[in-house]
Amino acid sequence: MLKPLRILVSGRIWPPSRCCSGFVSRIRYVNRLKQDDLACVSALQSGTFFLFHRLKPLLQRNQQGGFRPAQLQSTDVQDVLQRLGEDRSMVKESVLIGCTEQNQAQFCLDVGELEQAAVEEECGGNFIDLRKAFFLLTGAEAPLVAKSQALLRWHQSSRFCSATGQLTSRNQAGSQRVCSSSGITYYPTMAPVVLVLVSDGKRCLLGRQSSFPEGMYSALAGFCDMGESLEEALSREVGEEVGLQVQSVSFSSSQHWPFPQSSFMLGCHAAVSPEHTQLDVDHSELEDARWFSLEEISSALQVQAPPRRGGPAPLWVPPKHAIAHRLIREWADRQRGSRAGEEGEELPPL
Q1: Residue 328 belongs to a domain with what CATH number?
Q2: Could you give phi then psi for residue 178, rounded to 5 degrees?
Q3: Whose CA is closest to 322, among 301, 348, 341, 343?
Q4: Beta 288-292 vs 204-208: how paired, if at all?
Q5: Containing structural domain, residue 87
Q6: Rounded to an integer, what distance in angstroms lies between the CA atom of residue 2 and that of residue 232?
Q7: pLDDT in tens, 316-331
Q8: Which of 103, 131, 212, 300 can bridge 315 by disulfide, Cβ–Cβ 3.0-4.6 Å?
Q9: What is the count of structural domains for the chain?
């Protein structure tokens, strides 16, 4: 039997138990917009918008030469729609994402019916596939784009009631869809996925799929089966993919992940016995899996993602806003702390 999950708290500052009034204000404001269609219509007029074209986000270059998601004002979006021959009221098809610290509502809108090049020219940006965009965005922006695409995708795939086959209708915020025939209300859902970084005490285990960019390795992951607990899913996935049996599990953190179609990632650390580390990789699941030392991981964490082309790709890991990166860095920090204790000296942080 696996031991119960324990929460890792070392090296992390948790928020105070008393909620900030500004946070509560924003949460309640967003909740009111989900419940009150008229209030949401009013918020549309002063909100900010993320545009998508067939689920690809619109990105613009910033002053540093990087990319950021384009954030347009309501009037700007309506003007673009009008110039491209579309009704300005199309803005009402937007879906609520959340709100800023200034309580300005944030929406996303897919303009896939319009010509992509024409919208790009009007907005001064480019629509980029989300898998590529995720490596170009900073940690603060990526979750907003991911949430937007997940909501837009859900609406596109949930237009019909699974019980009656009838069209469903959405509320103004896009937080639910209702079948008028059956009275069933549908809400956006996410599929639970366990993500685990396995360690034998001195090394960590990373794998790669053939679809990964060249040189990139990541933690092992897999969907939870119906009826499985987190511990059971984690143990099964490690056994299936690399033929190892985990001895202990600790929970680290969670994250919404937009791939393949909106997943809820539960990040964990797991330990295996140093005497039983021989890998039996299932190549139908993984292209490769290997043990990596602290020195190799430290170098990989320094590689800019994705690395520049030219020559063989170095080992690198997912970007900083990915939960896999967080797990790998946590492991490396603990290893460095352990070594510093053994050697009696303080090692500089990564």
Answers
A1: 3.90.79.10
A2: -130, 140
A3: 301
A4: antiparallel
A5: 21-160
A6: 8
A7: 999 888 999 999 999 9
A8: 300
A9: 2
Question: Would residue 173 count as lying in a domain?
Answer: no
Residues 84 and 133 in one domain: yes
SS3 3: coil
DSSP letter for 201, please: S
Q: Supply the pTM of this predicted model.
A: 0.84
Round to whole Å and give the CA distance between 325 and 316: 10
Predicted confidence (pLDDT) at residue 198 exceeds the cutoff of 50: yes
d(CA 285, CA 236): 13
How far apart are the C-alpha atoms of 344 and 160, rounded to whole Å? 64
Name, in order, each residue with C-beta under 8 angstroms of 333's C-beta and a sequence gap of 6 or more: 11, 349, 350
Q: Which residues pair with 250 in a beta bridge?
A: 269
Q: How confident is the model at residue 261 (pLDDT cuts 50, 70, 90)?
A: confident
Last residue of a domain, one of 114, 143, 160: 160
Residue whose token pair is 């033929």: 243
Instruction: Strand 177-178: give its sheet, edge to edge.
Output: 169-170, 177-178, 185-186
User: What CATH number should be reported for the domain holding residue 114?
Assistant: 3.90.79
Judge contact between 100 and 22, C-beta under 8 A: no
Is residue 147, in this structure, part of any structural domain at all? Answer: yes
Whether 42 and 142 share a structural domain: yes
196 and 338 co-located in one domain = yes
For residue 58, give both structure tokens: 């619109």
User: Same domain, yes or no, for 231 and 298?
Assistant: yes
Which residue in this structure is represented by tokens 């090692």? 347
- Placement of tokens 């997912």 in the chain: 318
In a domain, 259, yes or no: yes
d(CA 299, CA 321): 18
